């Protein structure tokens, strides 16, 4: 009787609550507490507290400490390789947010890369994505439809600056996720020469402070709580998306409501959130970046998760790349 050929990645077990690496006896980005967790980055759908031990980049561990309290931490630098059981585990940059990493797993001559979330655009707040050739590539598909093609980042930031200059008696209130997006908007403004003070909702303060501690240049930041309406006129104010239409915003000088998200490509989403100035600015790869990445890496098999899996699986199949969707729990929205 013929012996069935082994399946690629049959030592990796996808579950709704995470990916189990059997020969390492460890979980990647588990959504439930586990004895051993390999974490790609600090967003809540990938990182949580309560694990027995955590392996992540030093920056991700610092973010987890801020969000969840002190971890039983095992820092892994970019480019470093550690051994867990019979598996060699490496961390390489994902370009998503500060400290974000792809986890590279080598076992018995086979390589699996779990990319977590990633983007290919330049971002002054984090290390750029590094493509790694592999047998199996686990990719997100948050914006895995051809309609999602993100515009030039500089053009979106210029729209924000233009709105500010055209309305000197008002402020521009930008809703942005507290980890990654808020700091990127601020850093992109600084890159475009906007050096005026930027005002923060209190919920953004701790992570902005952490980014500054990690060497990211954010310039002068002030808290809304310590400012008057008159002081904030003609300035950018940052807040979490949930505070855009909150009573809190009444203390601001006639705010122009903006939101920074890849979902602002969908006009209905902007209308639903009463956004006057949609800024299409994403920390995830768009359709072209997803497909270009797959062509560049050239894996034998692609596993797709977190988003529009069907379109990307179909794209792979039409190019003779084996692909399948994984039913992992998580958020497809950037503003979790």
Automatic annotation (TrEMBL):
InterPro entries: MBL, Metallo-B-lactamas, RibonucZ/Hydroxyglut_hydro, Xnuc_lig_assoc. Its EC number is 3.1.-.-. GO terms for molecular function: exonuclease activity; ligase activity. Residues 15-177 form the Metallo-beta-lactamase domain. Coiled coil: none annotated. Keywords: Exonuclease, Hydrolase, Ligase, Nuclease. Signal peptide: none annotated. The keyword tRNA processing does not apply. PANTHER family: BLL1145 PROTEIN, CLEAVAGE AND POLYADENYLATION SPECIFICITY FACTOR FAMILY MEMBER. NCBIfam families: Xnuc_lig_assoc. This is Ligase-associated DNA damage response exonuclease. It comes from Sphingomonas hominis.
């Amino acid at each position: 009787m013929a012996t069935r050929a082994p399946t690629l990645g049959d030592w990796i077990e996808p579950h709704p609550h995470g990916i189990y690496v059997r020969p390492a006896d460890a979980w990647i980005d588990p959504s439930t507490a586990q004895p051993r967790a390999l974490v790609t980055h600090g967003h809540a759908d990938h990182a949580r507290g309560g694990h027995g031990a955590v392996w992540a980049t030093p920056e991700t561990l610092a973010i987890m400490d801020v969000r969840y309290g002190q971890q039983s931490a095992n820092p892994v630098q970019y480019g470093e390789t550690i051994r867990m059981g019979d598996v060699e585990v490496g961390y390489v940059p994902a370009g998503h947010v500060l400290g974000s990493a792809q986890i590279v797993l080598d076992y018995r001559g086979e390589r699996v890369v779990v990319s977590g979330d990633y983007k290919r655009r330049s971002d002054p707040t984090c290390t750029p994505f590094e493509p790694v050739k592999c047998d199996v590539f686990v990719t997100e598909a948050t914006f895995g439809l051809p309609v999602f093609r993100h515009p030039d980042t500089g053009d979106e930031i210029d729209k924000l600056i233009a709105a500010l200059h055209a309305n000197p008696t008002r402020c521009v209130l930008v809703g942005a996720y507290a980890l990654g997006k808020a700091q990127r908007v601020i850093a992109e403004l600084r890159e475009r020469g906007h050096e005026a003070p930027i005002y923060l909702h209190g919920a953004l303060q701790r992570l902005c402070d952490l980014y500054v501690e990690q060497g990211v240049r954010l310039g002068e930041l002030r808290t809304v709580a310590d400012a008057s309406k008159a002081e904030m006129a003609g300035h950018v104010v940052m807040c979490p998306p949930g505070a855009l239409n909150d009573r809190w915003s009444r203390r601001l000088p006639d705010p122009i409501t903006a939101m920074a998200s890849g979902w602002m490509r969908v006009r209905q989403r902007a209308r639903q959130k009463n956004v006057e100035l949609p800024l299409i600015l994403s920390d995830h790869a768009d359709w072209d970046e997803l497909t270009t990445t797959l062509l560049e890496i050239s894996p034998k098999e692609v596993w797709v998760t977190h988003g529009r899996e069907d379109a990307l699986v179909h794209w792979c199949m039409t190019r003779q790349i084996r692909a399948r969707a994984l039913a992992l729990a998580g958020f497809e929205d950037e503003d979790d």
